Amino acid sequence: MAKQNTKRKVEIEVVRPDLKVASVPKTKPYSDIDLNHWKDYDHIKTDTWWEFASRDKSNGHSNEYHGNYIPQIATQFFERFTKKNDIVLDLFLGSGTSAIEALHMGRRCIGVELKEDLAQHVSEKFTQKDLVTKVNIITGDSTSEKTKEKVEARLEIMGEEKAQFLVLHPPYDTIIRFSDRKEDLSNCETPEKFYDMFEKVAKNGYDLLEQGRYAVLIIGDEYKNSEIVPLSSECMFRMMKLGFKLKATIVKNIEGNERAKGKRKNLWRYRALNGGFYIFQHEYIYLFQKVKQKKPKK
Ligand SMILES: C[S@@+](CC[C@H](N)C(=O)[O-])C[C@H]1O[C@@H](n2cnc3c(N)ncnc32)[C@H](O)[C@@H]1O
Questions:
Q1: Is 190 part of a structural domain of the chain?
Q2: Residue 203 has pLDDT above 80, yes or no
Q3: pLDDT at site 114
Q4: What is the per-residue pLDDT across 250-280, written as a single tens digit (0 to 9) for each?
Q5: Mean pLDDT value across the chain
Q6: N or C: which end of the chain has fewer CB within 10 A?
Q7: Rounded mean pLDDT of 134-160?
Q8: Residue 266: what pLDDT?
Q9: Strand partners, 223
Q10: Percent of the chain having pLDDT more than 70?
């Protein structure tokens, strides 16, 4: 059908070059980007080094929550890997960056956050009408089966069986302690426990995501007891083990994002020279796709 249309368009253009024919948009099943006009999408990133001059503070975004992610990450992925009205599922909602950006871009969102007061605070950022039709905020522990069932119930209310995009921005182990609750991933006694809890969340995310759709993991590494704890690689491998197909490893510059370190740059430089380590200036963003599992060969 698309081929016929293109042929007809070419024929008309040859006979009547003055006549402008609207072309049939060429899109992927997971995106509204019209590939016929790919040159119009200069703002969409296609390489693996991401640097943003400053944090977007428009459209309801603020930098009120220590540990939130820069909204431009959401903007990039939602435009490239979701369609209008799709549901973005964020299992570590925090201050609601994903929800704010999803609504701003005409998408919907379901978010889960462990801290009740924070979930309540985020809910207050939306109108009552939006809270019924476009955004659903659940207070809960994303590692649990019960939370998964709650998300399924919300999906049903919103007329969907599965979510169309998954955001995972977990605590970076103990770097920022978000609460003292035992269910909190920032409260694990060892990195191994952190990985196991993360895997449970990722498994729930996998089950709740539609086949063929994309997921993103945003995470940095930790420097503890004079060595690197490779949180990012281990979480990435755990997701691959669950069946997610790795599509991209993006390095994002965090210079200037780190509130504490920014102000004491020289002290950290001295510590690095003295301690034989390098100061983190980046974090990782991994992009995955949920694809049909291949049957093991007999
Ligand atoms: C890195 S922050 C996410 C920030 C968020 N992306 C934003 O832009 O505001 C991680 C969040 O996960 C929450 N969290 C920790 N353990 C959790 C769990 N088991 N279930 C749900 N949320 C959890 C923390 O309270 C924290 O708000």
A1: yes
A2: yes
A3: 98
A4: 999 987 555 555 567 789 899 999 999 999 9
A5: 91
A6: C
A7: 98
A8: 86
A9: 228
A10: 89
**pTM reported for the whole predicted model:** 0.91
Residue 2 pLDDT: 46
Distance, CA 219 to ligand 1 centroid (Å)?
Answer: 12
Question: Does any domain span residue 286?
Answer: yes
Q: Is residue 276 situated within a structural domain?
A: yes
Pocket of ligand 1 from Cβ distances under 6 Å:
65, 67-69, 92, 94-95, 97, 112-115, 141-143, 169-171, 178-179, 183-186
Tell me if 185 sits within 8 A of 221, measured CB to CB. Answer: no
Residue 296 falls inside a structural domain: no
Between the CA of 261 and the centroid of ligand 1 the distance, in Å, is: 22
**Concatenated DSSP letters for 9-68?**
HHHHHHH-TT---PPPP---TT----GGGGGG-TTS--SSEE--SS----TT----STTP
CATH number assigned to the domain comprising residue 80: 3.40.50.150
Instruction: Calculate the alpha carbon distances from 13 to 18, 20, 25, 37, 70 in Å.
Output: 8, 8, 17, 17, 45
Give Cα 79 distance to the centre of its chain.
12
User: Domain range for residue 246?
Assistant: 48-290
Domain count, the chain: 1
- Which residue has the least CA distance to atom 27 on ligand 1? 94
